[in-house]
Amino acid sequence: MPEIRRLFEEAISKPSPLHDSDHDVLPLVAPFYHKWSNMYGKPFLYWSGSQPRLAISDPELIKEVTMDTGGGSFDKTGFDKGKILFGQ
Fold first, then answer.
1. Confidence at residue 21, expressed as pLDDT on a 0 to 100 scale
2. What Gene3D superfamilies does the record point to (predicted)?
3. In the chain, where the domains are located
């Protein structure tokens, strides 16, 4: 987690290179994902405390994982839409 915090601090300390037509916001909104996907490839595994996280970006693999109802051996991370909406 300290590395993620450090990467966010570095990202916000730099002048924003974004323009109205620039849609490459990944280095600003998820600098850890941007750095690690370039270093380790896609997909990659990282740890959030004691919880392993599998980061995937391939649309077909995302579809397969999200549609799988076979009761796999891992829990998918859920998102509380209310918390996201109100920034909690």
1. 60
2. Cytochrome P450
3. 2-85
